[in-house]
Amino acid sequence: MNVSVGDVVLPGDSCQEIATIGEKSKVILGPGLRKEVNGIFITKAGTLRKRAPNTFWVDNYQKRYIPSRGENVIGIVTQKAGDIFRVDVGGSCSASLSYLSFEGATKKNRPKVVIGDVVYAKMLVASKDMEPEIVCVDSHGKKGRLGVLEDGFVFKCSLNLIRKILNPECPLLNSLKNEWPFELAAGMNGRIWIKANTMRETIALGNAILASEYHSNDEIKSMCSNIASILAGHIS
Amino acid sequence: MVSENTDLKDFKLRPMKCECNYLSKSDGSAILSQGHTVSLVSVNGPLDVKMQSQSIEKATLEVLFSSKGGKPTVGDRYKEHVIRQTCETAILGSLYPRTGITVTIQELEDQGGFLACCINCSCLALLNAGLAMRHTFAAVSCAIDESGNIQLDPARDQLDTARANMTFVFDSREKSLVTGFTEGSYSEDAYSEAVERCRAASHLVFAFYKEIVSKYSNVIG
Q1: Main localization of the protein (chain B) (predicted)?
Q2: Which class in CATH covers the domain with range A8-60?
């Protein structure tokens, strides 16, 4: 079946629109699209999206993470092997993290990372045939926001929810940050790390994030003010 | 993510109801009822698998079938094999080399057309898991009664009096036959007519998939 941008698509549908544009100019095929001999085919179920000028992808529901280069992820250190750490990022195999890829780390000055630590890192190498590699520094050798996450609470959610809350148009974080102070790190691998002053606030924050998955922007706003008033003790 | 489709009654397929993401812990899951037949499928993967079962060029697909009684029989293993072969043609395994994908099927209620229900439910669970697929697939079952009439999507009482029962799986691209599973005796003409009737009915199942996917992708959008 032929589909166009904005439609709900299923695997096996073909998109003539992209193929026509592709004849004239360069097209970027994102996740869920695949070029075959006789056209462009859909491989995932969801909504076909386009960003100008020529980037196409399918917005699909997914819970399992497939490593992809350049994404920020939250991993848990599972093993120390010589000069690398094995980090579980939720993919099909664990990622490797060199002890030299921390800010200011040298052979003498090893970073303090122990098994069980939660790290916020960037995917450096991610390919289907190779083990993924993550780093805790940017290309200037600075840590930025990456590194070991102290204390806090980690929970899992679907990959869509991460993309939804990180979308600048989503009001969730903007409404919550005015209500009470907290820290948050969202990994593209479907893990969220949160830290607030009290347990009550942490639970409220976690529930607010998880509840926003199936809500519209207006519903999220009213939910946030609702949670804030409960937390402030106006309503018991 | 709950959906039901009652117009299917007019086209002689039993009404289908489905809920995707029924299980919270698995990567993809679906529960599907076709009439009174109900099955539950959970998909996990791509995951790490044992060295022996790894394949360097594609994902290893494993299908586990649990019947109501819990004890696996030879017939169940055969069904597992049929479902595995069907799913393998659809999944783009080459995108996930050296990994394993597990499809677990639980029988909840068998009131006829159970294999078709399992296959359709597996397809929905695979869509929910977000695995890359070449095409979707739809299974339609039919029965041939004593007088040679073809009855689409038979219920349990119709199956008991049937001379033969068949299940056909079609892909969504060309509507070509992927899998055929037959029991009983029938003539060659009856077989080819049954294939055509099921092929015509398969578009209802594809339309049902589309309806379900559009229902939930509008919500998460």
Answers
A1: nucleus
A2: mainly beta
Record: contact A11-B95, CB cut-off 8 A: no
Our count of domains for chain B comes to 1
Q: How far apart are CA B100 and CA B61, in angstroms?
A: 6
Residue A69 DSSP one-character state? T
Determine which of A2, A33, A43, A219 to mutate to test the interface with B (most B C-beta atoms within 10 Å). A43
A8 at B interface, C-beta within 8 A: yes
Residue range of the domain that includes B61: 2-220
Does the ipTM exceed 0.85?
Answer: yes
Per-residue pLDDT of chain A (236 residues; tens, 9 = 90+): 788 899 999 999 999 999 999 999 999 999 999 999 989 999 999 999 999 889 999 999 999 999 999 999 999 999 998 889 999 999 999 999 999 999 989 999 999 999 999 999 999 999 999 999 999 999 898 999 999 999 999 999 999 999 999 999 999 999 999 889 999 999 999 999 999 999 999 999 999 999 999 899 999 999 999 999 988 886 55
Question: Thinking of the domain A153-232, which architecture would CATH place it in?
Answer: 2-Layer Sandwich (3.30)
Instruction: For the beta carbon of residue A91, count every other beta carbon within 10 angstroms.
Output: 23
